[in-house]
Amino acid sequence: xxxxxxxxxxxxxxxxxGLLFAHSDLLKTADDxxxxxxxxxxxxxxxxxxxxxxxxxxxxxxxxxxxxxxLDGVAVGEIFASPSSSQILSVTKxxxxxxxxxxxxxxxxxxxxxxxxAGEMAEMEGIQTAAVIGTDDVASMPKGEExxxxxxxxxFYLYKMAAAKAEEGSSLEEVVRVTEHASRNVRTMGVALSxxxxxxxxxxxxxxxxxxxxxxxxxxxxxxxxxxxxxxADDITSTLIEEISEDLSLNQGDEVSVLINGLGATPLEELxxxxxxxxxxxxxxxxxxxxxxxxxxxxxxxMAGLSISVLKLDDELKRLLHRPFNTPFHKQL
Amino acid sequence: xxxxxxxxxxxxxxxxxGLLFAHSDLLKTADDxxxxxxxxxxxxxxxxxxxxxxxxxxxxxxxxxxxxxxLDGVAVGEIFASPSSSQILSVTKxxxxxxxxxxxxxxxxxxxxxxxxAGEMAEMEGIQTAAVIGTDDVASMPKGEExxxxxxxxxFYLYKMAAAKAEEGSSLEEVVRVTEHASRNVRTMGVALSxxxxxxxxxxxxxxxxxxxxxxxxxxxxxxxxxxxxxxADDITSTLIEEISEDLSLNQGDEVSVLINGLGATPLEELxxxxxxxxxxxxxxxxxxxxxxxxxxxxxxxMAGLSISVLKLDDELKRLLHRPFNTPFHKQL
Lengths: 333, 333
Fold this sequence. Notes:
The structure is a homodimer.
Chain A: H1 11-22, E1 27-29, E2 36-39, E3 49-56, E4 73-79, H2 85-95, E5 101-106, H3 109-124, E6 129-134, H4 155-167, H5 172-184, E7 186-194, E8 212-215, E9 226-229, H6 233-247, E10 255-262, H7 268-284, E11 288-295, E12 304-312, H8 315-321, E13 325-326, E14 331-332
Parallel strand pairs in A: 3-4, 3-5, 5-6, 10-11
Antiparallel strand pairs in A: 1-2, 2-4, 7-8, 7-12, 8-9, 10-12, 13-14
């Protein structure tokens, strides 16, 4: 294992101390726990608050999306581990302005359990909550069982839509409606080339041999559905887009936004080679790409690989997509 | 070699096609060559233009810094190879508004030769040019021979200062003065954990064994000055900051900006662990960190490693530091 760390058990708290220092203009802690982080200006008056949370090791997910036009707060877990319900409750109390709180996170057992518990505790304290769960990873479950799928990089779009809607002054009910609508219209497919190593484990979580790739792998190394010879960037891109297009029933004339996300070790240069092919495929099918995001949006430590997310747009989602946001890692003017 | 590419010889042009598509709101080509890229709104009236250039494989360097508050244009080379003088000349013609053009790039033989030639050709066409060369890599040459050092991530600060000064309406002479002043006050130290592989070569450019690190390595794999056992993040950070502080003659009461840069494969989480230690060291020495940047600013394909750059501030540099910029990869509001 080659990592810039000190004691493995301190990775998350030390990382957060550095992060809170570097982004003190945007972030603050909700209480005396560095793992409970909220917007500097929380609670934001007269706005539905959006909270996410999950394990560490996926930066910019989850806490990197705190800021204007994005999340109000995040409960941070240890590497690949859920935050506790009491953390989530503490963040909830700090961000609620009286207009309710949306819990928006990926579909993993521990997260679902803890957000559910936190929601019940919050209701007992008079804070209205609702939950939308990201389930964009096409490869994780077959069609017909979409609600059982894992949440991966497509969460970015759910944050974006929920937050933009909330900033328009909408009610919790309206924010939930738009976020669920976005969730039904976003899909992600990923491919991995090499594994990552958890600091406390000290060795790779899985293995992909030289010359091989794995399609459909999850961001914690959950097995994919195809392991085989590494193909060209164009062929891999075609496969991923094909799966997404079919699952999302994309048709000629549709409008989409595309997120090409690096999983950690993959150079930006390669993501743009993939971007070029996505452009060519959709141009050929007369599907309009309204906006592209390229970079690291949801990583898995130093895993080499990438994912493509596609959000199918309608007029409302398109309007919300273009609203600005200002977070520590990504900004949109 | 595991990369998302097609034919190795097409990596740069395909990458640029993707990049120009994704960032068509900010970038355009200077001519019919996708390797010659300028600001969408070039030439910007009544402003000294800033041009950079160099080999590919370092994104966001170089072309990722084109945009308002940063560069006007970039001539892009093949992987780790200089752009040609005719490319640079073409970019020069497209960005010049009559107020002159600053060539601002890292100290590498091919780049120096080609920018010099382009400058001579530009002068013959009546365009005034000047050059400032980044030489921030402390490890590459000893003290006393600072002007022979390589340019690495510290270039970010030179771009920032030159461009901010130019946007204030300053003359070419004034922009050069500030940029040279910034150059004398910026230092970088890097450490690598694993190599990168050039697509056309197909195997790693060097080797660092398991459990080892190399301090002082350049961003093309130029050898460092210390190869030894991988130390803790805190110890490595202390070493890098010690070297920089001594070379820069940092004293109690000084003000600095710090850039903690990932070389490609290193997770953001680890960069923030390093950030925490930098904060503690400077706090202890009563050196004020005015602003921190953390992320990928100058990479070396999928090399694992990081660098720390420190810019010593005075009132003018501090004012320029805080001016906003808007580029494809990084934005400052």
